[in-house]
Amino acid sequence: MLEVIGINLENKINDIKNYGYFLSEIKRILLLKNDNSNNELKNKEMHNEENLNKEMENKEKLNEMKIIIPHAQLIELNNGNYYKGEVVDGKIQGKGIIYYKNNSIMYEGDFVDNKFEGNGKLYEKNGMLIYEGDFKNDKIEGNGKYIYENGDYYIGQFMNDKRHGKGKMYYKNDFLWYDGDFKNDKIEGEGKYIFDNGDYYIGQFKDEKKKGEGKEFYKNGKIKYDGPFDDDLYEGNGKFIYEDDEYYIGQWHKGLKEGKGILYYKNNKIKYEDNYINDKYGGKGKYIYENGDYYEGDWSNGLKQGKGIEYYQNGKIRYEGNFDNNEFSGNGKYINEDGSFYVGQFKNGKKNGNGKLYDKNKNLRYEGDFNEDKIEGNGKYIYEDGEYYVGQFNNNKREGKGTLFKKDGKIKYEGDFKNDKYDGNGKFYFSNGYYYDGEWSNGMRNGKGKIYDENGIVKYDDEFIDDDIPKMEIFFTEIK
């Protein structure tokens, strides 16, 4: 992440030097072995300087040069590059400039004993400044500014052509993205790294990466993470604070929550505790809802998965059984707050399949089919007075074919139901032994029907309107 965009500084410096500034060549020209060779060399240099000066008069760029160096000498180097500046005792010494053969400046600044020494500037052939600052013994060393090809730049200390010591890295738009220690041209030691979004890190670095103890901050200065790092990632035991002020304290591995840890609400109450796998709840764990209800059991990929128990805040069980993708699934038991409960099958968090309903006194009230949390299909419903219904249900109501029994097991009604009422064709048995067999609507006798006595003899055969007999009176008990 912290890799510097651009080129290797040491390689770039060597490239600049190899453009034609060969010290061995300069020494060959300048070093004087004896008086005769000294005089011969001086004459040759004067002759060369005259020729070069005449040639330079025809070059527009050189005519525009405004650099004035007292006692400057002009020396041609190999492959067409040349030096103009001070020479003392046969050595390049003092102020001077080295030019590319295209007349653009390669280096301008101080020299000592034929070497870059003091303050100077290095340029590309195209005239772009790439470094300005201190030199020592022909190398960039001391304080300076290095500019990369993409416009990013470094200001700070150098040693042996490399960033070394205190320094700062900037993008070309002058955005400071690192301030701290460098070692052997790499970010290493203590420093501050600023992310593009304004968040930042303060801590230890090793080999261009966050390593060791450190802290990450949001751009507003609030701590984001406090703990150890390795290879640029959270590693070990650390604390992470979310933007909503919830926070995690626990183990990390390769930037992810891994192992034991505790997640807290912003009010410092525990939200989740125990195991994490791959940055998510995993294995055994306990999750506490904001209302105080809680879950204990198996987790996978951040979801309740496997065996588990959900509790009300008072510690009483709400659900015990299997979970799949955070939902009740398979076989389980759900207990309502009033004590009534369901035992049976679940799917997608709802009662689906076969199950039983019990009241708070553990009396069986229903057994049969469920669909999407509703009594639906075939089943048996037992009423509080002991009567019970066996038949079809839809949307929690009797619907379709069914039989209603009295508590002594005798049939009360058998036939069609609709919307929880007698509707269609059915037979109703009175307590005196009489029974009705005919049409029903909305829970009442409507349409054609017959009333039989206890011996099966027809007592009435005609139409009924809303349970009334319009043509005769007959004594029988009122139907329910």
Give an overview of the whole structure.
- The chain has 480 residues and is mainly beta.
- Among the domains are: 20-124, Single Sheet (Histone H3 K4-specific methyltransferase SET7/9 N-terminal domain); 383-480, Histone H3 K4-specific methyltransferase SET7/9 N-terminal domain.
- The protein is 9% helix and 57% strand.
- It has helices spanning 9-17, 23-30, 35-56, 60-63, and strands at residues 73-76, 82-88, 91-99, 105-112, 115-123, 129-136, 139-147, 153-159, 162-170, 176-183, 186-194, 200-206, 209-217, 223-230, 233-234, 236-241, 247-253, 256-264, 270-277, 280-288, 294-300, 303-311, 317-324, 327-335, 341-347, 350-358, 364-371, 374-382, 388-394, 397-405, 411-418, 421-429, 435-441, 444-452, 458-464.
- The chain has a 35-stranded antiparallel β-sheet that branches.
- β4 and β5 form a beta hairpin.
- The longest helix is centred in the first third of the chain and has 22 residues, at 35-56.
- The protein starts with 8 loop residues before the first helix and ends in a 16-residue tail after the last strand.
- The model is unreliable at 1-9, 17-68 and 471-480 (pLDDT under 50).
Shape: rod-shaped
State the name of the first-level CATH class of the domain at 20-124: Mainly Beta
* CATH architectural category of the domain at 20-124: Single Sheet
What distance lies between the first and last C-alpha atoms, to the nearest angstrom?
81 Å
Chain-averaged pLDDT: 86
Low-confidence stretches: 1-9, 17-68, 471-480
CATH topology of the domain at 20-124: Histone H3 K4-specific methyltransferase SET7/9 N-terminal domain
What fraction of the residues are assigned to beta strands by DSSP? over 45%
Number of strands: 35
Helix content: under 10%
Q: What profile does the largest beta sheet have? A: 35 strands, antiparallel
Please identify the oligomeric state.
single chain
**Radius of gyration over C-alpha positions, nearest whole angstrom:** 47 Å
Category by helix and strand content: mainly beta
| Count of helix runs | 4
